[in-house]
Design goal:
The longest helix has 38 residues. The chain is mostly helical.
């Protein structure tokens, strides 16, 4: 209790968050990841503290909601053209709820891991707990290796997708440069995220990012309705199984943005509050994704099959330019969200994770950006790459592994009896939890990884055959003088 009281004195604006945070958890929070000086410095202005030092449940909600709907907002109309209107709506709701459940499982396992380590007097000062460490602590080194491999690969390609999206979007404002050149430019811009120490420091960015995607989503919906249905519009989806499962897997990817759940929880003053935050974030995200995707598909129908970026079909106006610019800024933020856990892993590998100097850590992080930059130039397939990543990586990282890990962690009666978090009020039976988890593992493995993997890779290979690797300008309009051979 003394430690808790002392930390309260050090961070006056966090006093309301004191009550149920264990001493070790609260004490280590103050200096985790080199952030201790932020709390200790009494002379720091309140304004800077307000913008920079976030750890409340509201911060976590903004982080989850903002991170969930970045560039994927622009590809959901494309998915609706593959799935048809009814399937598009049903699968969004279905995978949104599935994603919220597995985010809940991850939060439960984090609290369990943290509680067990505190009993062993383990300190997390200057250390950010990550998902693979939770798996290691609860299930052993083999699970750590699996979690690390899937999570890092997913976050790597998640960052790649943000770079591709930046180049794709800016092209609709300035087509004097091709998309590959824009990728070079935005790769350099996004590399500046190495200077953002941790998720504590995304408070203002998360808030702004969600505002930007909210504007963009409603711009898409209103612009599509104002435009009206295109001449001779056709709504033939679903046409082919390959397209259907590719679209379904993109939606699975949409609601699988919680590969950074543990890092967001660790940045909270009271991580126990996270349990339902992802669900509340998802409910808000529905208000953005459903109207925008449905309106765009209603207006343009099958034209979306060859226009993965929704901006491509809307006439250029100042409102569209504003949406493009806001999405560019948000994609920079989301790049940071996806990359920060990779930065943490790399820091731990090279022994720089407990270094307090922001500049030294930034220098150590730079090698992480280079392969991301390179992959974005090799595979610039905006839209199809989302589905491929969803099927091969998100299906395991976000759905299957958390469900399996939860079942194995609480397989023994003693573990269930001493669980730090009991089953939720709406599903109070351990048996019921096991049934839900088994359903998720089987469904996602068969439908998401199996059918989704086949469909998305078939579609991805088709893009490679059509446009080639290192495509200079993916899905760009041909120059006026160029012959049209299709």
């Amino acid at each position: 209790m003394t430690e808790v009281r002392n930390s309260a004195n050090m961070v006056p604006n966090n006093q309301a968050e004191e009550a149920i945070v264990p001493g070790e958890m609260k004490g280590s929070f103050e200096q985790e990841n080199g952030e201790g000086e932020v709390g200790v410095d009494q002379s720091m202005s309140g304004f800077k503290n307000f913008l920079w030092h976030g750890g409340s449940a509201y911060d976590a909600w903004f982080s989850c909601a903002s991170n969930q709907v970045a560039q994927v907002l622009l590809t959901l109309p494309y998915s609706f053209s593959q799935l048809g209107m009814l399937s598009g709506i049903i699968l969004q709701v279905f995978y949104g709820l599935l994603g919220s459940w597995t985010a809940y499982l991850i939060s439960v396992l984090y609290v369990e891991y943290r509680a067990r380590k505190e009993k062993e007097n383990v300190s997390f000062k200057n250390h950010v707990i990550q998902w693979f460490e939770v798996l290691d602590g609860l299930l052993g080194p083999h699970w750590k290796a699996v979690g690390l491999a899937f999570n890092c690969t997913f976050l790597l390609f998640g960052s790649v997708i943000q770079l591709i999206a930046c180049a794709s979007n800016i092209y609709y404002i300035n087509d004097n440069l091709d998309k590959r050149t824009w990728t070079y430019i935005f790769g350099a811009c996004c590399a500046t995220t190495v200077f953002i120490p941790s998720f504590h420091n995304y408070r203002i960015w998360s808030f702004l990012g969600l505002g930007m995607t909210t504007y963009t989503a409603w711009y898409l919906a209103v612009a599509a309705l104002v435009h009206g249905q295109a001449e001779h519009v056709v709504h033939s989806g679903p046409q082919k199984l390959v397209l259907y499962f590719t679209g379904a897997t993109n939606i699975l990817y949409t609601f699988g943005g919680h590969a950074v759940t543990v890092e967001i929880m660790h940045a909270m003053w009271k991580p126990q509050k996270f349990k339902y935050i992802y669900l509340f974030a998802t409910l808000y995200v529905f208000t953005l994704t459903l109207p925008s995707a449905a309106a765009m598909y209603w207006a343009f129908g099958d034209q979306l099959l060859t226009h993965a970026n929704a901006f491509a079909l809307l006439p250029r106006t100042r409102f569209r330019d504003a949406a493009v610019i806001l999405m560019l800024i948000h994609q920079f933020i989301t790049f940071g969200f996806a990359c920060t856990p990779l930065y943490f892993v790399w820091e731990k590998v090279v022994g720089m994770h407990d270094t307090k100097s922001i500049c030294l850590r930034a220098l150590a992080r730079l090698p992480v950006v280079i392969p991301i930059w390179f992959l974005a130039i090799i595979f610039p397939f905006f839209g199809p790459i989302n589905s491929a990543v969803g099927a091969l990586l998100v299906s395991f990282t976000v759905y299957i592994i958390p469900a399996l890990a939860h079942m194995l962690t609480y397989r023994k009666a003693s573990a269930r009896q001493n669980a730090a978090e009991k089953p939720p009020f709406f599903l109070p039976s351990w048996t019921a939890m096991y049934i839900v988890n088994i359903f998720i593992v089987v469904w996602v493995f068969v439908v998401g990884f199996g059918f989704g993997g086949w469909a998305s890779m078939t579609n991805f290979i088709n893009q490679v055959d059509t446009f080639g690797l290192f495509a200079k300008c993916y899905q760009c309009k041909p120059p006026p003088s160029a012959p049209h051979n299709h």
